[in-house]
Each structure stands twice: as C-alpha cells, then as structure tokens.
C-alpha cells in the first residue's frame, strides 16, 4: 500500500478549508438586493451607491466631495444600476443626479437626489438595523470599479476587546515606523469613531458606498455602508513602494452604524429621515 495515500501532506492539498455553503434562498435574496445597488461614475472615478427613500441614493460622503469641488452634475457624472457585464449597460439603468441633499463628514455619509425622469427608479432598500457584530453580512458593490460583486464578511473586529485594542495600537506604531505616516486620520477617519465599526473584507477602492446587508429568509436589512480602509496611506497611489512590504492582513476596513445615520439625520434633516427610514421596522 502506498504510504503517500495516508500522508497528511497529500490530503491537505485537496481540502478546501475556506469554502462556504450558501442556500439558494440567500442567493435569490442577494440577487433581489443587487437591483437597488448602483455604480457611481464621476469622470474617471467610480464608487458605489444604493437606492433609499422616494428618489435618493446613499453613498459615502468622500465620494460626493468632488461634486462640491466643481465637477457638479455633468454628463460624465451618473449612476448605473444592474451593471453586470464589463462596459455594457442598458440606457434605462442610467440615472443622473440633481443635488446632494445630505452630508455628514463624521459619519462619512451623503444622500444624493436623483433627477426625475419618465421611467421609475430602481427599488429602494426599506429595512435597516444596527450592525450584527456577532454574525455575518454581505457587501454588494463595485470594488475597483468592476462589475457588481458580493463579499460575505465574517470577520468583525471588536475594539472593546483588550487584546484587539493592543493589536491595533501595535499596527499604528508599525505604520508610523514603516512610512512616517499615521494609520488613521483624525478627527473622523479613526479606528475609535463611535459611529463606525471595523471588519475585514475583500472590497477596496470603488467599493466605497457599498451597502452591507443581512439576509433573514427573504428580508434584506441594511446594517452598514463601506466607508474607509486603513492604514489610510495604503490607498494613496504615491505610496506603492510601501505597500509591497505591508501585509494585507495588517489592513482593516470600516463601515458606519446605520442607527447612527438615522439618529443624526433625524436631528438635522427630519423630513429626509422620514422619507428614507419611515418604513423601517427596527429589529
């Protein structure tokens, strides 16, 4: 008998220890959720957004900063829904922007009003909740400006854990020694921002504004929006030489708490808050 057949080394090469099982119902529900997600195109820049309320898109506020800097709402700035094939989309899935009606830099959240046209808008998300820190959520969006993809996120980082706090402090120190630049950027883009939480995901630039959804049977619940990745310098094109010697496992991503979005919007723009969140059944 060949002893190689019993070696751990041989069998180990064939075992997929990272595989996941998804129910067909989850796949069906994610497909339904994808109808509400769009690729935001601003000239050569791209991001992700998603439908909320009667005629709005929610995304990260750093995405809309270029609007405020003069790009405004030119023909090269629009949203495309159902973007599934590279470079191909139907004109009926293209929508232009009217104006940014809400921005909160602390949350890094903006809401854009869509320009009214003769055809209906894609369906909005109507269920929201706080992040489920002991579970899983699915990011849906356009990472790197690619066609729509999904990323199941199972690694939530609990900053209230003393061991995690220590590890994050070590990363901050390592980052500064490696580049001379800080890991995060006060006052808002910090690991300790109480309106946000940390996790590990595969989405990167272009994924900003992607909704994080929890699937319960056929119900879709938005619990977060992908905002930022750390270390901050890792996403700076001029820092490519430093990225080569920085392990990806030392990177971490951050999303907003949707309850914080609701509460802060309620304080400054209650009418918009009602429009977006009025149908919500908070869990």
Structure description:
- This protein is an alpha+beta fold and 283 residues long.
- The chain folds into 2 domains: 37-125 and 262-277, Trypsin-like serine proteases (Thrombin, subunit H, Beta Barrel), CATH 2.40.10; 137-259, Thrombin, subunit H, CATH 2.40.10.
- Helix content is 24%, strand content 29%.
- The chain has 7 helices and 13 strands.
- The protein has helices at residues 8-12, 24-34, 61-71, 162-179, 240-243, 258-268, 270-277; strands at 37-42, 45-52, 56-60, 77-81, 94-104, 109-114, 137-141, 149-153, 155-157, 196-200, 211-216, 219-230, 252-256.
- A 7-stranded antiparallel β-sheet has the order 8-7-11-12-13-10-9. The protein has a 6-stranded antiparallel barrel with strand order 1-2-3-6-5-4.
- The chain is globular and about 55 Å long.
- The protein starts with 7 loop residues before the first helix and ends in a 6-residue tail after the last helix.
- The relative contact order is 0.17.
In short:
The protein has 283 residues and is an alpha+beta fold. The protein is 24% helix and 29% strand.
Fill in the keyword field for this structure.
283 residues; Thrombin, subunit H; 2 domains; seven-stranded antiparallel sheet; six-stranded antiparallel beta barrel; 7 helices; 13 strands
């Amino acid at each position: 008998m060949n002893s190689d057949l019993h070696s751990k080394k041989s069998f180990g090469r064939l075992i997929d220890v990272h595989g996941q099982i998804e129910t067909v119902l989850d796949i069906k529900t994610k497909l339904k959720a994808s109808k509400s997600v769009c690729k935001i195109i601003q000239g050569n820049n791209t991001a992700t957004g998603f439908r909320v309320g009667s005629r709005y898109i929610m995304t990260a506020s750093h995405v809309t900063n270029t609007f405020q800097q003069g790009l405004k709402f030119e023909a090269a700035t629009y949203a495309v829904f159902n973007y599934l094939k590279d470079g191909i989309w139907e004109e009926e899935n293209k929508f232009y922007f009217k104006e940014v009606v809400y921005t909160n830099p602390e949350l890094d959240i903006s809401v854009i009003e869509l320009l009214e046209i003769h055809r209906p808008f894609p369906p909005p998300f109507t269920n929201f909740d706080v992040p489920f820190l002991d579970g899983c959520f699915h990011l849906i969006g356009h990472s790197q400006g690619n066609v729509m993809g999904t990323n199941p996120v199972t690694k939530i980082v609990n900053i209230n854990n003393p061991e995690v706090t220590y590890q994050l402090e070590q990363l901050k120190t390592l980052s500064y020694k490696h580049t001379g630049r800080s890991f995060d950027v006060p006052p808002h883009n910090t690991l300790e921002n109480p309106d946000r939480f940390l996790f590990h995901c595969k989405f990167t630039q272009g994924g900003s504004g992607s909704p994080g959804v929890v699937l319960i049977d056929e119900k879709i619940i938005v619990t977060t929006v992908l905002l930022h990745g750390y270390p901050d310098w890792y996403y700076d094109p001029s820092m490519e030489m430093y990225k080569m010697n920085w392990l990806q496992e030392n990177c971490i991503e951050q999303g907003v708490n949707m309850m914080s979005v609701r509460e802060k919007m309620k304080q400054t723009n209650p009418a918009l808050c009602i429009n977006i969140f009025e149908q919500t059944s908070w869990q």
